[in-house]
Amino acid sequence: MVVIVHPCSPAWQNLSAHATGSTDSVDMWMNHGYPPQSTRSYAPSCTLFYTGSSGGCASVPHSGRRGLMACNTINSSIGIFTLAILAVLIVAVALGDDTRRSRMAFAAVLTLHAVNTFGGLLAQRFTGLDDTFSIMMTYIGNYGTYMVGPVAVTGFILLACANLPTDLSPKARRTTTGLIVTPGVLNMLLIILNPWTGWVFRIGEGNAFVWGPLHMLPDDMAALQMLVSLLVVPLANAGGAKHVLLQWLALFMLPIAAGIVENRHDSLTLMYPAIAFSLMILFILRRQSNEERRILAEHELAESKAKLFTEQLHPHFIFNSLTAIQELCMEDSTRARKAVQELSVYLRGNIDAVGESQLVPVRKEIQHVKAYLGLVQTDTPHSIKISWNIRTLDFRLPPLSMQPLVEHAVKFHLPYAYDPALVIKVWHDDVADYISVHDDVESECPEEADHHTASLDRVAKRLGIICNGSLTYASDHGTTLTIAIPKGGNA
Fold first, then answer.
1. What is the reported pTM?
2. How far apart are alpha carbons 46 and 6 in whole angstroms?
3. pLDDT by residue (tens digit) across 34-81?
4. How far apart are CA 152 and CA 86, in angstroms?
5. Measured at the alpha carbon of residue 39, what is the angle toward residues 44 and 191, in degrees to the nearest 5?
């Protein structure tokens, strides 16, 4: 049987005398690890867990048992409520409008916390029952909780930091991530070694749960991880450090405060329920952020539609194409008919894009680019060697995202090449889908051929807003413009 006795209670002397004068043993001291040699060296705030088998606990007052039952009832109630919150959040995330990868990451963190909470409830239910099944459930619950806990906490902190509007540089992000992950790894090593060391906990006689000498270290390390995440605030260069700090406080102050309380009253389970509430706050912040992004995207698209027609339907280009077609009508009627068809496809693609509010298949973008290049070849005295390398057609992208890349190369790079050549690739890997446009012109091209043109900037902005895509520029062995659209970015 397991009971709780405070050192200042009338039963303290009777229990101590019984424990030292019989074959029973003092099984654990809360806050102080394994049983000390002398009961007089500890402050009266200690709580003694005592396991007795010969009926020596008869002198223990009923108030001690009621205190233990009340503590277990509180922990169980908190655990059940926490599981309910996590279940609702998992469903909400699964039905949300985030990208597939974002939903999976959030759902994974929520699931880990649900497993951790369920393990705690399992351990509370069977601790103290000494039959074989109860002992097995106690071990599964406790080790499930303590094994999953460090991973769940680390995942929550990384997810929270990723959603703060910090816009960190890659180096700062790697450094912060490393400082957050390291305590989590140390926590995992501590739990892995626990079956042999008993540093965190052990299962004593009568299936009694016994704290080890380092039992508060996992919570302390979790609090350290949260404090380390505070480093992102001074590194923030978007949204303002003050705004980032307010969001950090909203996400982390409750778990940190719960850890402090749990350090003083470690019979209560508070850290993980507090993290569950923080995950709910994080979900709300993400929804607000997504809504802001959606409104911004609509605003950007509304503005871009007004410029799209004038950007892509260049009067000078249309005039030159019509002039070339007129000459072909007298010289080569077959080529003239083909040029008219290409002009029709090109114009239709631009007109459709103005009214298009959804992503379009990459196949449609390729057809538009081929029509554009056909017209360019008609009007260009020097033939351009064009190589296509298409390995996938199974993704979508914002309309008129591909043609500005080709037009940039044709206008600002190929005129300065002795033997103009263009390589267009469409491929994918496990991370993203890609489109690249490469020419052989080195970086010594004129200043107006710089990649920071207004048209390409608008393409990059549309990609980022609509499907989390990006547009990159490279000048190694020529010039390459590459569009990358993450898997699930348009889901």
1. 0.58
2. 7
3. 333 333 333 333 344 444 333 333 333 444 455 556 777 788 888 899
4. 13
5. 85
